[in-house]
User: Which sequence fits this backbone?
């Protein structure tokens, strides 16, 4: 079955939003299988803009904001588990807990609670704030240095030189 190009592009976007891979979305949209073309279409400014707009709309519909997510992470990271108990030391029932306290609970069975891991929330907050620099180390066999032959080194240098000599696009 053949679809007009614009319709295929819109179908491609819809399949991506449904969670399909780039290549699967490309084929399901009506294009012939080609991973390179699927990747190029995915990276096109039009497709990227439409996907970004769709994600913002979904976030608005279900009221997801960065602030709300960060606030919940902070509640999980810094929540006071003492609020799970009444003044007499007995455990509160779930309906007696406020929202912040209830968010600390991962499981509640037969008067026992299992709390969520605050370290995970702290780690996510720290990453958001840029507190943890992620580093990737590259090494050769058995952790040794990366050894390159002259031919490979020459190719790498030539690639870097051609990349740096290309003129920027107008207006950049």
Assistant:
């Amino acid at each position: 079955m053949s679809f007009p190009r614009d319709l295929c592009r819109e179908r491609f976007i819809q399949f991506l939003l449904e969670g399909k891979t780039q290549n699967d979305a490309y084929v399901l949209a009506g294009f012939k299988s080609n991973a390179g073309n699927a990747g190029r279409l995915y990276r096109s400014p039009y497709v990227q803009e439409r996907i970004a707009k769709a994600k913002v709309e979904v976030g608005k519909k279900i009221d997801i904001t960065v602030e709300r997510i960060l606030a919940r992470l902070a509640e999980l990271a810094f929540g006071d588990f003492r609020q799970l108990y009444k003044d007499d030391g007995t455990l509160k029932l779930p309906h007696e807990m406020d929202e912040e306290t209830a968010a600390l609970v991962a499981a509640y069975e037969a008067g026992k609670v299992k709390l969520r891991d605050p370290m995970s929330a702290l780690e996510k907050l720290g990453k958001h704030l840029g507190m943890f620099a992620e580093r990737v180390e590259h090494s050769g066999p058995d952790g040794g240095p990366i050894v390159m032959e002259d031919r490979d080194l020459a190719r790498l240098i030539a690639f870097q030189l051609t990349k740096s000599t290309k003129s920027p696009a107008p207006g950049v």
In short: The CA atoms of residues 94 and 104 lie 11 Å apart. The two ends are 42 Å apart (CA to CA). The longest strand covers residues 105-109.
